[in-house]
Write a structure and sequence with these properties.
The chain contains nine helices and no strands. The protein is mainly α and 178 residues long.
Length: 178
Amino acid sequence: MENIGQKIKELRLLKGLTQEDLAELTGLSVRTIQRIESGEVDPRTYTLNALAEALGVDLEVLTSKKKNANASLSQEAYNWLILLHFSGIFILIIPPILIWLLKKDELEGYEQHFKDIMNFQFSIFIYLMVSVLLLLVIIGLPLLIFLGLFSSVVIVLNTIKVMNRDDYHYPLTMKILK
């Protein structure tokens, strides 16, 4: 059976929020969020209300002892989320956009994931264009190789993190989409 902390963590990850983001939205400390998610403490009612509001769910979703009735839908949604993250491996913006356009209505709460993926894609594209310009100065070729490897590793690692329902992070990303 899932405890409240696990439900909160799962919902937080579905929303694409970090523990810091959730703490800011609720007015709780990051340490409190960590302790709740790890099951060290049981949150009080007013804390649960703040968490439910920040996560965009009814309080009953957090306090229900029953397994989520939409567990299969949740797993399917997670599969699409995993594919959305992995689609960035092609260093093209088309695959993530196509997946998002096809499934955006079914992937409620995944908008932040999409923005993070697209920001990373745009950032890598900009870095690649700079590298192409630097080809004239010889440093561009090693930079192109590094960017290709770097982006592939980051995308695979973040896809694995999403598969494990852990926090993901795209480094060196410019916030183009907000």
